[in-house]
Amino acid sequence: MSSTAIRRVGFVGVGNMGWPMAANLVKAGFDVAVTDAVPGRAAKFVREVGGHAAEGAAEAARGADALVTILPTSRHVEEVIAGIGDALPSGAVVVEMSSGNPGITRRLAGELAQRGVAMVDCPVSGGVSRARTGELAIMAGGEAAQLDRVDPLLKAMGTTVHRCGEIGAGQAMKALNNLVSAGGFLIGIEALLIGQKFGLDPSLMVDVLNASTGMNNSTQKKFRQFVLSRRFDSGFGLDLMVKDLSIALEVGRDNGTPTPFAALCRELWSSAGALLGPGQDHTAVAQLSERLAGSALGGGNSGTAAD
């Protein structure tokens, strides 16, 4: 497979995360062709950011050195790979940045290899705010030579690239990261509810947690910004978190690791999705704990929005 430098990039999926990521590639000087399932979104990107609009994934892939995919699920990625046919030339590399299923990604990598196309998986963490600033944390899986090749591309979108192992390892790590994040969110919300009923100010509790050993990403960047403010608009869907937790459990099941706490965590997030309905932000999961407690959290400054 080719080891030529990457200049032309097809980018599939300019949603909440993909838009700022693709924008940073344009800013870094890559020749970027974008496409999205939402009609008119690619054209809007070109008007506001630059690059080229493609009518579909096949057009975006045609003649590209690399094809970036950042889509809701691995099933969507499968559809893209099936739909591009031979548009992506031999020697190109697919950079799969979705929070996907490692097993599906490994199968797709094998299919692409038969066409002379490499694949690496590079899911991200940091949310929309860090996607905008190009400060994402990237978890990468794949052959070292291909990761070397896409490194300039990745570093235009993130500040840290962690090489986790073979193809699929980045997605496994991303799912496990979100498992830890999801668990920390739920236990933190329960602590705030307990404290509020005791008579503590939830906003003050967040300050104390952030100065103490209870600090985590949710206490720092989610509770005041999206829960106490009642905004629930971080930009990452509750359904996507449930998907990632399901992937984490699947990885554990496949390698025979008992996951009692992870299973309970996933069940609670899934229950919140069923209770609140579709289209919810993941921070709205706090409303499940609030309903169980019979009280809502609130109070204090809303702070600065962050993910």
- Give the tally of β-strands: 9
Largest sheet: 6 strands, parallel
Termini Cα gap? 38 Å
Strand content: 5-15%
* CATH superfamily placement of the largest domain: NAD(P)-binding Rossmann-like Domain
Which overall shape is indicated by the principal axes computed on the Cα atoms?
Answer: globular
- CATH architectural name of the largest domain: 3-Layer(aba) Sandwich
The stretches of 5 or more residues where confidence is low (pLDDT under 50) are 300-307
Read across the widest sheet, the strand sequence of neighbours is 3-2-1-4-5-6
CATH class assignment of the largest domain: Alpha Beta
Q: Kindly report the average pLDDT value.
A: 94
Question: How many helices in DSSP terms?
Answer: 14
Helix content: 40-55%
Q: Please compute the radius of gyration using only Cα atoms.
A: 20 Å
Order of helices and strands: EHEHEHEHEHEEHEHEHHHHHHH
What would the keywords be for this entry?
Rossmann fold; N-(1-d-carboxylethyl)-l-norvaline Dehydrogenase, domain 2; six-stranded parallel beta sheet; globular
